[in-house]
Amino acid sequence: MDRLQQALTKEPRSAEPVSVLFTDLDGFKQINDTLGHEAGDRLLAEVAARLGDVARAEDTIARQSGDEFVVVCERTDSGTAVEIARRLTSSICRPYLLPVGTAKVTASVGVAISDGTCGAEELLHRADAAMYRAKKLGPGAVQTFDGAELPAR
Predict the structure, then answer these.
(1) Where is average pLDDT lowest: 75-84, 88-97, 141-150?
(2) What is the Cα–Cα distance from 107 to 113, expressed in whole angstroms?
(3) Could you tell me which residues are beta bridge partners of residue 61?
(4) What does the pLDDT read at residue 13?
(5) Tell me, what CATH number does 134's domain have?
(6) 115 in a structural domain
């Protein structure tokens, strides 16, 4: 949240939007249930490493909770944000070699682009709402927030 707030504070000076990519792993519960929590923890670490490999050097990656990750991208328009999100989903869906076997997950990503009217919490909430819309489209989907479905808080 601190990095997102800092990025939004800089945004008016740079005149370039900030994007939030809210990523949720599809099928992670099954990994925990079938291979165990240690394998799940290992998979989460591998996912984080892949996110780091795909994100740009100036992006901030954070584990939000459970199997959710947030990527804060400064100086991104919607096209760039969606391109980064698609690279993330492509990287995440490759198989993982874990000590107890091979596992595969996909990721649903919600993208929200700052418009200068909301703070960090609201932008994160918009990205989360877009991610839930992406999940409805099926595993590995990317959805940009358009205001159509903003869940109640």
Answers:
(1) 141-150
(2) 19
(3) 71
(4) 56
(5) 3.30.70.270
(6) yes
Annotated active-site residue 146? The verdict is: no
- Our count of domains for the chain comes to 1
Strands 19-26 and 106-113, bridge-based pairing: antiparallel
Task: Give Cα separations from 4 to 31, 59, 72 (angstroms).
Answer: 30, 10, 6
Confidence of residue 153 (pLDDT cuts 50, 70, 90): very low
Sorted by sequence, the CB contacts under 8 Å of residue 94 that are 6+ apart come out as 50
Classify residue 135: in a domain, yes or no. yes
Cβ–Cβ under 8 Å, residues 39 and 31: yes
Q: Flag whether 152 is in a domain.
A: no
Tell me the residue range of the domain where 56 lies.
Answer: 2-144
Residue of 24, 59, 67, 128 marked active site? 67
